[in-house]
TrEMBL record:
Belongs to the CCNDBP1 family. This is Cyclin D1 binding protein 1. The gene is CCNDBP1. The keyword Ribonucleoprotein does not apply. It comes from Oreochromis aureus. Residues 47-187 form the Cyclin-D1-binding protein 1-like N-terminal domain. Its main location: cytoplasm. GO terms for cellular component: cytoplasm; nucleus. Keywords: Cell cycle, Cytoplasm, Nucleus. Residues 197-304 form the Cyclin-D1-binding protein 1-like C-terminal domain.
Amino acid sequence: MSADSCGGKVALRNLVNSINCIRDRVRDGESNESDGAFNLSNFWDTLNQAVKAVSQEATKLSLAFSKPPLPSQQDGEKLADSIMKSILTLSTVYYWLPKSQGLALRRLVRDATVDVLEGVAQLVEVIMSSPLESLSQEQLMSTGGVWSACDQFPQLSKDNKAAVVVVLSCEIRVVKDAIEEIEQALAEGEDPFNDVLDDDQDGDEPRGNQDTYWSENDRQVIGACQGLIKAAAACLRKLTSAVKSNGDFSTPQNVSQLDDLADISKEISPGVDDLALCLYPPMDYNGVETNVCKLAALLKKILEIIRSSHVCGESELTWVQFLDGAIDHNLQKAKDLIQQES
């Protein structure tokens, strides 16, 4: 017997659509800005209570439909109404968080809220399609998914400074991975595609396609590009430390500066990836030069924003100036080596 064949589950059909509509509004909607004072601590207390209520209602729903006899149509409607009220409360509390508290913070809370809404919608859909006879493994996993989505809220950054640190930390990991991949490819020998292409070879004859090998000049160009990418990683690490030490979210101007730093920092990893892709043989020298220049320009722009922001004190100026010089050095080195080859 399918879920839809029981009267108690009829009420769940519209519930899924309603949750999905709320999810879309949360994902794309604007906050309710107000001129009055906003208490961030009270917001978190209320939000955590709302999330806890959603988790409890989702658990009730899952248990009610876990074994026969399933709820009657009337009981199913009560369950659906109850979980819908908790969903509406959660979305309403989310909308309380104004942009003035920081875009980085708001995005973290938005994404976490969307995760909860999607988890509940998935659970309801699983219940609707589950057999009557037993609690399915899929339903157990979906219930656990809602719990997991709700459990992340206590660990979320509580202010824009902490939220920006999360953004920067994610960028550091991505850039670090790119550095390690390049170093690993260089360490594996002359042919970085050896393990990928060997399976396609017929017989025991070695490949004669030199386009899969790095020349000595290629490796020197890679060295200059590595220097630039490492400068990007150092910039992110130093900026993270500066935000932790000096970051302030007590004024609109400082909150906006933190958001600007987070937004432009998120452009680093795509720039690093674009450059890294050009380095594999056959090396595209035009592409390398284009992406080296783009990444260098981006890094210098970031340093300029850092220099003019409140997170930059006298001690930070030292590494800002050092990295500025390192970027110029590696950029010029890469250009010179590319021109030698052309």
